[in-house]
Design a protein that fits this description.
The protein has 4 domains: 127 residues, 3-Layer(aba) Sandwich (Rossmann fold), CATH 3.40.50.10190; 94 residues, DNA polymerase, domain 1 (Orthogonal Bundle); 52 residues, DNA polymerase, domain 1 (Orthogonal Bundle), CATH 1.10.150.20; 130 residues, Beta Polymerase, domain 2 (2-Layer Sandwich), CATH 3.30.460.10. The chain is 39% helix and 14% strand. The protein has 19 helices and 16 strands. A 5-stranded mixed sheet has the order 8-10-13-12-11, sandwiched between helices. Strands 2-1-3-4 form a 4-stranded parallel sheet. β14 and β15 form a beta hairpin. It is globular. The two termini are 51 Å apart.
Length: 512
């Protein structure tokens, strides 16, 4: 009768042991640091992942607390929480340990070496009996509720996400409901992600999020579970769900959306090899290119690669329009170091628009043998047309979705080392890169730039704010004042924010 319970317990112990063994498998580079990562409020799985990551970077990480430990790293724990835990470990004088927040280890992993431990990453006792954990010498209580707007366009959201453990979980749940075409619940999770990313402190207790908008009961229950257990059972269930895993795999193919994924899943396919093996399937030209260059396209595009593509695009565009504006947009304009594709906005201050530019660029790249695939979409833009009421509506500019061949030698020489060659392409000296080119008239340039910079949730809320708060209509083409019944001109993004009565938000603060 007790066998199932014992088996589960044994499995948990085995998983824990497997995650903690063999700290000497990796070369130890930093002998003066002996780390112990506290499992409390973190969970076994995440702790094991962080331990292995730190060891790979050259840190010595102990599985058990011992006399040799110099630094204790904790997540979602205050200094008093850690000291209380230490008191139960019979370690004697706990002052010999350096108590550090997880932010220290995260920063070390980013740079690949130890960073300064004293200061902002230290866990210290608060001076004023505050119930909140203190990192460094600055107490970081929750933001006042009134300071957190329901609109992402009124919040400054940088890439410094203090609550990634929560937002990662909600991104998985949002993606799952997107796959199931449940827009309502997907949007609820997306809004929760957006507001959590703007908080300048790490959520430790449920009281930290009192009054924060878009955090409904369902969202709060998941946050509470992660705080208490270090992980979410709902997220684990999704990650193990066959349909979710299949859709995640299928949609990684360029040109494959939800309808195709649903069709393949219903036909019994679960892997890409199964799809490729079925000769009766009729793939589109885009999907064929997606399969052909899949290995390259699913790998991240580094900022150095994006910069190299920018030079290729600018050189080609200015061969035909010497004065053309060529602007790198999307996540890279918001300060991201990696992405999945590279987006460019092109406009000519002289002629305003040249419908032959993109076809000419395509021909040039074909001649240079740089073009692997392209899909040219002609413009349907009408100057007198009112902005779309749909927040996710695609714009009507001429655009080209393509795959470019980027030779390794074109990438910035400052890059640490070239990407490793794949086993199937040992002699390949190039990488396939997804690129989007958008051609817009100079009169609409500011609106197009704002729209193509993102982030998606920032743009959604900007349009929603315009509609509900200002009685205006905004999209990538224009801003229309419904009260005055006029289109509002803008020569810059700043002008658009001024029209809407908003403080200007820099691109790197739009990572909502």
């Amino acid at each position: 009768m007790d066998k199932p319970s014992t088996t589960i317990s044994d499995l948990k112990k085995k998983r824990r042991m497997n995650a903690l063994i063999s700290p000497t498998l990796h070369e130890i580079k930093f002998n003066e640091f002996v780390l112990f990562i506290l499992e409390k409020k973190m969970g076994t799985t995440r702790r094991a992942f962080l331990m292995e990551l730190a060891r790979r970077k050259g840190f010595r990480v102990e599985s058990e607390l011992s006399d040799s430990v110099t630094h204790i790293v904790a997540e979602n724990n205050s200094c008093s929480d850690v000291l209380e835990w230490l008191a139960g470990q019979n370690v004697g004088d706990s002052s010999r340990f350096e108590l550090l927040d997880i932010s220290w280890l995260t920063e070390c992993m980013k740079v690949g070496k130890p960073v300064e431990a004293i200061g902002k990453h230290q866990l210290v006792m608060p001076r004023n009996n505050s119930p909140y954990p203190t990192v460094g010498s600055q107490n970081t209580p929750p933001l006042a509720t009134k300071e957190v707007s329901q609109y992402a366009c009124k919040r400054r959201t940088t890439l410094n996400n203090c609550n990634q453990k929560f937002t990662d979980a909600f991104e998985i749940l949002a993606k799952n409901f997107e796959f199931r075409e449940n827009e309502g619940i997907c949007l609820a999770f997306m809004r929760a992600i957006s507001v959590l990313k703007c908080l300048p402190f790490t959520i430790v207790r449920m009281r930290d999020i009192e009054g924060v908008p878009w955090l409904g009961e369902q969202v709060k229950s998941i946050i509470e579970e992660i705080i208490e257990d270090g992980e979410s059972s709902r997220v684990k269930a999704v990650l193990n769900d066959e349909r979710y895993k299949s859709f995640l795999l299928f949609t990684s193919i360029f040109g494959v959306g939800l309808k195709t994924s649903e069709k393949w899943y219903r036909q019994g396919f679960r892997t890409l090899d199964e799809v490729k093996a079925d000769k009766s399937l009729k793939l589109t030209k885009m999907q064929k290119a997606g399969f052909l260059y899949h290995e390259d396209l699913v790998s991240c595009v580094a900022k150095e690669e994006a910069d190299a593509v920018y030079l290729i695009v600018k050189e080609a565009v200015r061969a035909f329009l010497p004065e053309a504006l060529v602007t790198l947009t999307g996540g890279f304009r918001r300060g991201k170091k990696i992405g999945h594709d590279v987006d460019f906005l092109i406009s000519d201050p002289e002629s305003g628009e040249d419908e032959q530019l993109l076809p000419n660029v395509i021909k040039l790249w074909e001649k240079q043998e740089l073009l692997l695939y392209y899909d040219l979409v002609e413009s349907t833009f009408e100057k007198t047309k009112l902005p779309s009421r749909k927040v996710d509506a695609m714009d009507h500019f001429q655009k080209c979705f393509l795959i470019l061949k980027l030779h390794h030698q074109k990438v910035d020489s400052n890059r640490s080392k070239p990407p490793p060659e794949s086993k199937t392409h040992e002699a390949k000296n190039w990488k396939a890169i997804r690129v989007d080119l958008v051609m817009c008239p100079i009169q609409q340039y500011a609106y197009a730039l704002l729209g193509w910079t993102g982030s998606r949730q920032f743009e959604r809320d900007l349009r929603r704010y315009a509609t509900h708060e200002k009685k205006m209509m905004l999209d990538n083409h224009a801003l229309y004042d419904k009260t005055k019944k006029i289109f509002l001109k803008a020569e810059s993004e700043e002008d658009i924010f001024t029209h809407l009565g908003l403080d200007y938000i820099e691109p790197w603060e739009r990572n909502a």
